[in-house]
Write a structure and sequence with these properties.
Order of helices and strands: EEEHEEHEHHHEHEHEEHHHEE
Radius of gyration: 21 Å
Number of helices: 10
Helix content: 25-40%
CATH class of one domain: Alpha Beta
CATH superfamily of one domain: P-loop containing nucleotide triphosphate hydrolases
Number of strands: 12
Shape: globular
Low-confidence stretches: none
Largest sheet: 8 strands, mixed
Structural class: alpha/beta
CATH topology of one domain: Rossmann fold
């Protein structure tokens, strides 16, 4: 599959202000990420809160301006586009936001909210837009009369379906779903994830699925990129990552997932210890070494690059795959 979205050396820094002699510190939320998203694939971005997943996605779509790096979409340099050209290109990549209530204008009916991208991109006449809104509502499992309701009249799951319908309105090639179920009741999370997976296959969308719920990721993703402190530390097909994780951080994330088997002795390594370091003062060497049970002197002094360890898999670790040899 050819790459639809190409990210190279992406950096996003935020000035923290203050400091001695007016020299403020900088927080590097994304620290030089390389990433491709192929046409028609689902790539999951996972990691603890604060690791840079959402910032990476927002910078890749130019919802925020990156500090450095390159972003190409369908061969076009997105960072070189002016405001007018960028607005035209936005119909090709859309985002489903985490909070389905905050992302909807409470003063707009559902029908007007879903039709808004069609108006912005001047797609179709008034009657055609009404037909398109009806089709989209049906597509995401909402009744036709939902078009006349307001967001506060809907449940959280229904509001997220509206957000998905709106994101699909202009016919995008890439959909970014930013923790789309984390604000929803457990009872409806699987429904929304299944809906996204069905739509992705039906329209052959490229889908970037940002999440921290690993069982959901295992269900929906083709590949998984694991982020830690603004960097990708492991990138692998979903089956390889869940059965043969290479990075100690990935092993720790998977160890934290509850197992359903009653009475089975858990021989996996212990879940992650410690807290995510301050992104404004990252550790020297490997960023994970203060929490890593197999860290060695080299890990404290050098930062491991993201390197291929087998076909379609890469890891940023000097000792990939070794943690599984250690007892919990």
């Amino acid at each position: 599959m050819s790459a639809l979205l190409e990210v190279r050396g992406l950096v996003k820094e935020y000035a923290l202000g203050g400091g001695l002699f007016g020299r403020g510190r900088k927080l590097r939320a994304v620290a030089g990420v390389d990433l491709d998203v192929a046409r028609g694939e689902c790539l999951a971005l996972v990691g603890e809160s604060g690791c840079g997943k959402t910032t990476l996605a927002r910078c890749a779509l130019r919802l925020e301006e990156p500090t450095a790096g390159r972003v190409r979409f369908a061969g076009r340099d997105l960072l070189a586009l002016g405001r007018r050209d960028l607005r035209r290109w936005r119909r090709h990549f859309q985002m489903v936001f985490q909070d389905p209530y905050a992302s909807l204008n409470p003063r707009l009916t559902v029908g007007r909210a879903v039709a808004e991208p069609l108006v912005v991109h001047d797609l179709g006449g008034r009657a055609e837009r009404r037909r398109r809104v009806a089709e989209l509502l049906e597509l995401v499992g909402l009744p036709a009369d939902a078009a006349g309701r307001y967001p506060h009249e809907l449940s959280g799951g229904q509001r997220q379906r509206v957000g998905i319908a709106r994101a699909l309105a202009a016919g995008p090639e890439l959909l970014v779903a930013d923790e789309p179920v984390s604000a929803l009741d457990v009872s409806v999370r699987a429904q929304i994830v299944n809906l996204l997976a069905d739509l992705q296959r039906r329209f052959e969308l490229a889908l970037v699925f940002i999440a921290h719920d690993l069982p959901l990721v295992e269900h929906v993703a083709d590949r998984v990129a694991v982020m830690y402190l603004g960097r990708i530390v492991e990138l692998a097909p979903v089956r390889s990552l869940f059965t043969r994780p290479q990075h100690p951080y990935t092993v720790g994330l998977l160890a934290a997932v509850p197992r359903a088997e009653a009475g089975r002795r858990d021989e996996r390594p212990a879940p992650l210890a410690g807290e995510l370091p301050d992104p404004a003062s990252p550790p020297a060497g490997c960023p994970f070494h203060p929490r890593c049970p197999i860290a060695r002197p080299r890990c404290r002094e050098e930062r491991p690059p993201l390197e291929e360890v087998e076909a379609d898999s890469a890891v940023a670790c000097f000792h990939p795959g070794e943690l599984e040899q250690f007892p919990s």
